[in-house]
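As the next step, I needed to go through one protein, both as residues and as discrete backbone shape codes, included below for the reader:
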Amino acid sequence: MGAIIKPAALRLGDLVAIIAPASPLPEQSYLARGTDLLLNHGFKVRTGRYIGEANGYLAGSDGRRLADLHEMFINPEVKAVFCLRGGYGALRLLGGLDLELIRRHPKIFVGYSDITALHLVFNQIGLVTFHGPMLYPELGGKNLSPYTLQCLLRALMVPAPLGSIPPAPGLPPAVTIFPGRAEGVVVGGNLSLVTATLGTPFEINTQGKILFLEEVDEPPYRLDRLLTQLKLAGKLEAAGGIVLGSFTYGTSYFYPEALEVIRDNLAPLGRPCFYGLPAGHLFAQATLPLGIRAHLDATACTLTYLETALMP
């Protein structure tokens, strides 16, 4: 990881951008509602020039999706970049990223799920990023959780340590997998995407870090395979601690079979670990800065940020 690069805090009146690095929208109303939400909260909005394109399961060609990303980062007026949605496609962009451009023009970058691929690379060059809601399905949805919105705005606008991630309403209590405490830089994201980078120049470095993982719609045997692959690659044992967000399957946000697989794979490692942080594919999700230090208390099931993610 390079020297830490913290973007400037977002302010009312700032210009924010929306790009589509992965899949296209299932329906365009999400873009309209999400844009209105950002406008109504005091921001100006610019969309990528190719944001409406679709190429099968991709939101346009790799070249055009990269062009939108690079254009928004190099534009000095843009202060934050929001991703339209996940799905699939961000991984395809990694080899074409101009990382020196990103490093020279740091700004807030928000997304999750498939966007994990970009978080991993941006964190490698030192840029602090934000694992948080996108226009689809959250910010452009008809029933946006107040918790999700409040956590997002605080994470992006307050240049002070976030402190402890608050519990989300309507979700079950978190569960200790292995007790203990750890302190380190938070890295990670979607389990499938973290695993997909293994053996590439972009694979995750977990040494002494707090590894955050979440997943969606993967049955138990696939979760087992993904965790086993990370374990065989030495990524789980290297971590100082592990915090797990939602492992959503069907209508269950923290389904019981996932807990069994998690316990079987992670408890024997002896690393502080808990399951149930309100982050991931959830109706109420916290925004997590990635690339800065936090304290993990797996006994109390808390994650507490120790430094600010933002410059004033």
Notes: The chain has a mean pLDDT of 97.
